[in-house]
Design brief:
Elements (H helix, E strand, L loop, with lengths): L8 H16 L6 E6 L4 E6 L4 E5 L2 H10 L8 E6 L2 E5 L5 H15 L4 E3 L11 H7 L3 E4 L10 H5 L4 E4 H4 L4 E3 L5 E3 L2
Parallel strand pairs: 5-6, 6-7, 7-8
Antiparallel strand pairs: 1-2, 3-4, 4-5, 9-10
Length: about 180
Amino acid sequence: MFDYSKCNQNQILDLYAFNLLRQNCNRMFYPCWIRSKEKDVLNCSFLNDNIRVLCPNLNIINKANETNSPNLISYVLSVNHGLSKIILGGDAENESWNHIVENYKDEIANATILKASHHGRDSGYHQEAVKTINPFVTVVSVGKKPETDASNKYRQYSNYVFSTVWQGSMVFDCYEDGTVIMLN
């Protein structure tokens, strides 16, 4: 079970806001929790929204509490719209990516957009995951280029790598046929 006493005030407020939203939504938007005995997977998604939480799972949450490693509980999301697939990497590091590659390899394969984890740093780069994701576009969201920048590693598997350092805010239109248009 997750130890909420280790959450900071903002995290507790976020959880409170989420629970209020969930309580006030129509039934079709209630989260659906799925457990798999075979893979120890805990998955949360809202019905019909095509957003899936790939990570963390219960074992990773417990390890985050034991080791005081908050990046372990960073969400990694898969967002699907028709043939467009977006992977939002949060602050995921090796342990999370190992779990995702082991449990969701087919689901993450050949994504349209990857939002690089951990602001595009080496600590968030996982070669097997990025190779599997094989994104058309990788977005690195960062204020200034870090010394441990992994943008060149992402270029090995992405057609395009865009950074907010150079592009500023980015907006993409994703269409059901898989077409992606960068609006800015």
